[in-house]
Design brief:
Number of helices: 11
Structural class: alpha/beta
Radius of gyration: 19 Å
CATH architecture of the largest domain: 3-Layer(aba) Sandwich
Distance between the termini: 21 Å
Helix content: 25-40%
CATH superfamily of the largest domain: Aspartate/ornithine carbamoyltransferase
Shape: globular
Oligomer: single chain
Number of strands: 9
Bound molecules: N-carbamoyl-L-aspartate
């Protein structure tokens, strides 16, 4: 039985197959509409979410399956002190697969160690968010036609943004990918990403503070929100929250075929005037998230696709 804790749990070849499957689902949804009839996904969300939880649920429903779960720690037995290990043992009796989001780094991993059903990490603290990365990879490959030979700007809260950490870990495995890390000094990527991921893989990267400086060179700009819930004090958050605002004027500095991605939710970091720019791909990204989660559920449940 396989779980998904990090994008590195799949080899590059396995990822290619998963993304191919997602693209086929996009083209032929009817072919997949009953492949999970009678199966259930449990969505165990100990932290707020809109897209991730709903997209897992939509993905299972699109495959003919059913969903059960909870959307906050307060509405589950965690409020009574139940451990994640006990919860997953119990949920294994009700469901065939589970997606778990938790504020503590490593909680889904702990669950996977005692689970008798596949566990998907749907975001653990400031650590990893592998299914957002699958979504990002599918979006990039579908709209750009490749995952290699890219210059990628990642902008915003690179310290606490788990989507950024997972995406960098996944992309260092492709040839000729360079990174421009755009953040204020206080929100730079953690040392382990710089040293154990970028430098260990001999990747070309630079760190800049000004977005304007990076824009002209990018094939792709990945914007992120400042992660308010992971700050120790509100004053620091307020000082940082509007550090970057991508607007029409800044988009003029960017190449005509640069894509703008964002895992969402957006706060102020992308002005709504950018939404109609053909380069804005963040709402398409949401749709790709459903296809890739369908492909992931089929893969982890080892459902035969003819
Ligand atoms: C992200 C997350 O939860 O890390 N959201 C998502 O799942 N699409 C990004 C964020 O919350 O900023």
């Amino acid at each position: 039985m396989r779980h998904l804790m990090s994008p590195l749990d799949f080899s590059v070849e396995e990822l290619d197959r998963l993304l191919d499957l997602a693209n086929d689902i996009e083209k032929n949804p009817d072919k997949y509409a009953h492949l999970c009839d009678g199966k259930r996904i449990a969505t165990l969300f100990y932290e707020p979410s809109t897209r991730t939880r709903l997209s897992f649920e939509a993905a299972m429903m699109n495959l003919g399956g059913k969903v059960l779960g909870f959307s906050s720690a307060n509405s589950s037995s965690a409020a009574k002190g139940e451990s994640v290990s006990d919860t997953i043992r119990m949920v294994s009796c009700y469901a065939d697969i589970c997606a778990m989001r938790h504020p503590k780094e490593g909680a889904p991993l702990v669950a996977s160690m005692v689970s008798s059903i596949p566990v998907i990490n749907a975001g653990d603290g400031g650590h990893q968010h592998p299914t957002q990365t699958l979504t990002d990879l599918l979006t990039i490959r579908s709209l750009k036609g490749r995952l290699d030979n890219l210059t990628i700007g990642l902008c915003g809260d690179l310290k606490f943004g788990r989507t950024v950490h997972s995406l960098i870990e996944a992309l260092v495995r492709y040839d000729n990918v360079s990174f421009v890390l755009i953040s204020p000094e206080e929100l730079r990527v953690p040392d382990y990403i710089r040293e154990d991921v970028l430098e260990a893989n001999h990747k070309n990267y630079r760190e800049v503070i000004r977005l304007e400086e990076a824009l002209p060179d990018l094939d792709l700009l990945y914007m992120t929100r400042v992660q308010r819930e992971r700050f120790f004090n509100e004053e620091d958050y307020i000082r940082m929250k509007d550090f970057y605002i991508l607007d029409k004027a800044k988009m003029e500095l960017a190449p005509e075929d640069m894509l703008v991605l964002h895992p969402l939710p957006r706060v102020n970091e992308i002005s709504t005037e950018v939404d109609n720019d053909p380069r804005a791909a963040y709402f398409k990204q949401v749709q790709y998230g459903v296809y890739v989660r369908m492909a992931l559920i089929l893969t982890l449940l080892e459902v035969k696709v003819c």
